[in-house]
Amino acid sequence: MSTQIAVVSLWAEDVPQAASFYRDVIGLHLQHHGERPHFKVGDTYFIILKGHPVPAQNSTPERFPVIAFGVDDLDTALARLQQHQVALPWGIEKDADSRWVIFYDPAGNLIEIVQFG
Predict the structure, then answer these.
(1) Residue 2 maps to a domain
(2) Which of 11, 36, 55, 94 has a CB 3.0–4.6 Å from the CB of 99, allowing a cystine?
(3) Does the residue 104 lie in any domain?
(4) DSSP letter at 43?
(5) What is the DSSP track for 50-113?
């Protein structure tokens, strides 16, 4: 038996605003409109639900994203974020294997975009 992640959900008080952010700023393809917008990301559905996001309390590490989107070209993703004036409080970070940016979506969820290799 093979197991895969089928659905990932985030919560937002303003669901239409969050859906627009993920469609227009992150560049995800909106599959289903309505009260629970669905985006197809690889083989997984990413769904935004009505609710108040709550960050992890007393977490280790202190700053870790709720979800990370892998991209082939971080520079293109950065240009898109900058075009939409998304604040990047920690700038571009990197290690030997990847480069990434971490930021907040309009609902307050901590999000990452990462390029491996």
Answers:
(1) no
(2) 94
(3) yes
(4) T
(5) ES---PPSS-SSSS--SEEEE-S-HHHHHHHHHHTT---TT-EEE-SSEEEEEEE-TTS-EEEE
**CATH number of the CATH domain containing 73:** 3.10.180.10
What is the pLDDT, as a whole number, of residue 80? 96
Is 52 or 55 the better-scoring residue by pLDDT? 52
C-alpha distance from residue 89 to each of 10, 94, 108, 113 (Å): 21, 15, 13, 13
Cα-based torsion angle of the residue sequence 91, 99, 97, 41 in order, rounded to the nearest 10 degrees: 140
The count of domains in the chain is: 1
- pTM of the predicted model as reported, rounded to 2 decimal places: 0.92
Query: Is residue 101 domain-resident?
Result: yes
Domain, as residue range, for 80: 7-52+60-116
